[in-house]
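Bug report (template v2)

What were you trying to do?
Predict the complex of my protein with magnesium ion.

What happened?
Run completed; filing so the output is reviewed.

Input:
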Amino acid sequence: MAKDSINNYKFIGKSKFNISKFKTDDTGEFTDRAEAVDEFVHNLLKINKLQQRLYAERKEGVIFIFQAMDAAGKDGVIRTVFNTLSPHGVKEFCFKVPSSEEASHDYLWRFWSALPPRGSISIFNRSYYEDVLVGKVHRLYEKQVRPDRLNGIDIIEQRYGQINDYENYLYNTGTRIVKIFLNVSKDEQARRFISRIDIERKNWKISSGDIKEREFWDDYMEAFETMVNKTSTSDCPWYVVPADHKWYARLLVSRIVLQTLEEIDPQWPVISDEELETVQEFRNKLEDSLSGGYIEPEQQLPQFANPGVIAANIVENEERAKIVEKIARRKERGFDAVYKLLDDSPVIGSLDAIIEAVAYAEEKAKDTDIDTDTDD
Ligand code: AMP
Ligand code: MG
């Protein structure tokens, strides 16, 4: 993995983040998305395997925090990068405007119940950083009730310190925190808003509130810059991900997630010699109970697996790639045709798998005109 390339986007409190100099349309070493598909699906496969060990080991919990302007692609990143994870070890929390109950507590209160147990991953789709973003831009703290003794305090400045203390506490009690800011340009946001208005099935994603917030763009940029500069630490870093190209943002996030899990390096738990002896005895009894004796299982065919794993298998297997190429060519006949083809083929997949596979097939079949715009 091109590890250096994510370090270019990593902030640990040493170098300053200057948002006006940041290239939001960066694509790293790639010229187009087809070149990145192979690495992306392999990252998903590796993430899937590491998560199984993280869950089995149950030593450390992990939080991935996502912050961004509207339409920067948070939901799409989360959907694509985390869809290989097992649901029993992962939960997404979408933090909205605080409810009246939440607002009647301190601003960190609502996050306690979302913290991951050891071995699990919590995805924070927005977080307490909203309190130094929207909270700062609109001075929401001025309307919040507080005792007189706290009047005159610079609330936002104080919050940066409180957040650092909170994260430091969590890190030192067994929770890893990785913070990702998807940085989209104002022009790209405009293009995505337009498509949310023009394309009916995307209409639900836009609100008049989103358009109003756009008017505060410069204030938000200042708030994001200050947030990164005040709350990046080597233990709990910020990654600023260029988000004008969805495929590149997704690839980088897959690298960040993978590298985080690789650093944790979870191991399969080993059972004690005593326990092993007990189960060994049990195993022999089980064997004796089988009427026909026990035959070692042959190499098994892949089981039904999740989309990322399937996609990775597809990439690994030339024969499957050919099948997927056929799928891609027939895509214009609609998904029913694709399903039919899947029924007749050894590829066991879902639409997500097909979508990734189609992107791969696109690379393999450059001469055909395939519509692979699937990133709504
Ligand atoms: P979305 O994620 O697009 O569904 O929107 C959620 C909305 O909730 C965004 O406009 C956020 O700015 C807002 N939000 C989240 N947390 C807070 C908070 N602590 N205070 C005020 N607004 C918030
Ligand atoms: Mg929104």
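What did the reviewer find?
The beta strands are 10-11, 61-68, 90-94, 121-125, 175-183, 238-242. The chain is about 50% helix and 10% strand.
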